[in-house]
């Protein structure tokens, strides 16, 4: 018989097959000799008590063998001659997973990406970090792999209703991710491993007959004579690309795409987003709080760098942690020279001595009303950009970021000195209250006081605030019909993933890419 069981083991024991089998036998009340196999399905850390356990959800074979595990997805088969085409604008997680899905469905994906391939793109990160110079089409947000390529590579998502998260994880493993992401409750890849996976996905797309074009920036819409049907796009190099359907997966940093849609009078709606700062602590402080470590003792090697998720709502407005990166670095995620935007990343081993997280406050469309007369539905984008430019001025240039100790932020004073920080372009002491909108500062203050109860030291003398975290999610939604996933007034346009307001993270973007590809394939092949 096969039974699913939950067992608890210490972190040291949890990796040992024999210890798992003994624990399973105990839970099932059968002799150890009858256990023929134990397979891990999900693994999480239970650190609620002083003694830390690993919680393992397993399938156990009693008196019979375990069935073979499901095989990983095969690379897509070669396309038949004359397969219909779908244009995919953007080669982030949404674009890549949309392309793979198109191939599964016998449709040719033609991907257009403004940036470079992921290997060449890496060389453009150095000028941002060392010279403060951002190439407008090749940076932490633009290029093959999108904003996900040099990210933390956390794959946790709550978007479980948008498609099969397990299928997305299995695809990542098929293209080179560690199989541990299939069982880890908080899977993580790391920015040292992501580029190889992205390259392998692209090779597979090309081998099956799909196209991936780099250095092509969509800057025009090609529409039918009556304007109601999207036929394709024009690119900055003067070329025109047509297809039966266009999946727009350009991410939320592609402000020129929002401007293009506004000029073309394509309906867009304002939506809520969040802004604030990155907060950085010594990783040891987070470990001590989350793992109940005694003063002076360090995290045992069997435990990963600890993380946290914090949130609170007061007076109808939220303050929360966002994209927490244990053992990580803070990176300059601006897409233009006149902005400073911070975000976080980590390597697969998460072994930097610093932990960082977005620490942000919700912004509602009404908060940006002052810009409505001038910018219409793009008021949130303009508001975000204004804050990013003010942040750059406060930092003093060269991508330096304004920063303040949390204790000084609470005491309304500029920090006299700043600690070492994991943001490579450097930091400048600044009064962040003078930079951030007052309601953002007020809620950050609230968050600092509240979260201190969860993590002692969260707002203490080792906590550093770095401005500004602005690109948490899109301030825009491009509407689409639930039935067809097409824009209600522009047939053939499939607004997709983060830039269109339907995703927030790598996995939800990948899921939405797959959904849009399924809908686009049905549109170009109505007979199937
Ligand atoms: C530093 C950093 C760390 C992050 N860490 C994590 C994490 O750990 N976990 C997580 O889930 N999420 C993380 N994120 C967020 C995550 O990367 C995004 O949510 C995700 O990449 C969105 O996917 P997408 O495909 O919708 O858009 P994007 O990834 O933004 O991709 C859009 C693509 O479109 C291209 N493009 C834009 N305009 C045009 C145009 N006009 N023509 C052609 N191409 C165009 C861009 O170059 C880009 O490649 C991180 C983001 C950053 C910046």
Detailed description of the structure:
This protein has 528 residues and is of the alpha+beta class. It has three domains: 2-62, Alpha-Beta Plaits (2-Layer Sandwich), CATH 3.30.70; 85-268 and 478-524, FAD/NAD(P)-binding domain (3-Layer(bba) Sandwich); 273-469, no CATH class. It is 29% helix and 24% strand. The strands form six sheets. It has a seven-stranded mixed β-sheet. Helix 3 runs parallel beside helix 7. The longest helix has 19 residues, at 506-524. The protein is globular and about 75 Å long. The model has no long low-confidence stretch (mean pLDDT 96). Flavin-adenine dinucleotide binds next to helix 3, strand 5, strand 16, helix 15 and helix 16. Residues 89-95, 112-115, 140-143, 146-148, 151-154, 217-218, 249-251, 253-254, 257, 323, 331, 333, 343-345, 497-499, 503-507, 509 line the site of flavin-adenine dinucleotide (FAD).
How would you describe this structure in keywords?
five-stranded parallel sheet, binds flavin-adenine dinucleotide, Alpha-Beta Plaits, FAD/NAD(P)-binding domain, seven-stranded mixed sheet, globular, 528 residues, alpha+beta
